User: Fold this.
Amino acid sequence: IQASVERVNRLVRQEQMVQVEAAAMKIDDIFYNCRVDLGAISRSSVLAEYHLAKLFRLHAEADFNRENLLKLFKEILARTPYYYGIRVLSQRGEALISAGGPGTLDPLEGKSRALFFGMTGETRFSGVYFSGLVHCPERNGYIVHCTKAFFTGWQEFAGVIVIDVDFERITQFLRGIRVGEEGYSFLIDSQGKSLSHPRYGPYEYDPDKDPDPSVIKLAKNMATGQTGWQEYNFQGRKKVAAFAPIPIMNWSMAVTIPIEEFGREAQGIRTK
Assistant:
């Protein structure tokens, strides 16, 4: 009986780990593919020709290339439901091309300009900058700005490309992950702050302020990029969590269930 109980517990734990690792990999892939798309757009010959046509005031050519870029952006948005919008901004912050949902920030204003353009000196040719969660009133939720600078053939800074990732879609995906009857998933950033949780909005819950040290330990293990399985106490209830990192964003996600539900199948064996 004891051997059967231990085997069942291992299988339940393994199922929990497989589920969380697969979900974390899917979210990581969303932002990895975003980086790939930004790189492809920045190297596009159509974008280079559009910039040159605008520079030399060749309006017909600029309009032709602009329409081709808009068509490309709409195709990318159609195949990628996690994208909210794609924009091209000039070196002065003007919105040159925009497809999809409206941008949430005016890049010409102080804070917004730092977000879109403060990274160009650091990332230069290969880097992509990912913002934190930015509230989007039009979406009634949050998005993540993913930006990459693009340059002229003379290696002069020409502007930035912005892909807005729809965080509400990611939240919907996380809500669909369930283990057992009372299990749920949650997501934290590199500081341990909650990004997605069924009981809290983004940044509303700080585990460092939780009175139970097991919660602080779990958040620390997750925030440092570890993969594992841990028991902890949350709001007076014992739980078990399987967690895995999302490396590209320095995030971590977990799938958690109450410990009595985790051991329910094993208890059934004992009772029988």
